[in-house]
Amino acid sequence: MSLIRSICVYCGSSPGRDPAHLQAAEVLGTAIGRAGLRLIYGGGTRGIMGAVSDAVIAAGGKVTGVIPRFLIDMEATESELQRLDELIVTEDMHERKHIMFERSDAFVALPGGIGTLEELIEIMTWSQLGRHKKPIAIANVGGFWDPLSSLLDHMRDEGYIHTAHQVRPLVIDRAEDVIPTLMRKAPVNAEGEAAVIERL
After folding, report:
1. CA–CA separation, 139 and 169 (whole Å)
2. Which residue among 5, 30, 36, 126 is least enclosed by CB atoms within 10 Å?
């Protein structure tokens, strides 16, 4: 695994209903900033997105926001975006996701909606197809991602995930454990395809 210098965080642009989700975003953002890592994220300044980026900045870290032009007024204002170290405005979602991928050395999914799910699944798909070997982690705050874990197990059992060893994000229950786990990246276990998801 190459040196991790930047972390892409996928998460919701709304705060959700569980205060633990915002708290986890703050904990993760603080850890990213204190570790001297750069946050790569979707550029929003509200909800969980805003909580992560605010925490990184407060901890002295650097932030790159990547946002499509059409989302600027929905997820952030131009003045709010000026607090970021780097802002990249794209023409569409495809360009946004490609830039986030190129700029990131690892990926973390916090709770979010269908956009967060889509981004997580896409980066897992690219891994399965051999397009990258960057680590992927799921911050499973309060069991938020348990249904996805069950679905992936079901897909594997039904014979639709043939390279499970390449579709095994780290599932980490506590936000404070995400950065330390990624920095040491647990080795692949001897069971190979026995588990789609590795729980730490």
Report:
1. 10
2. 36
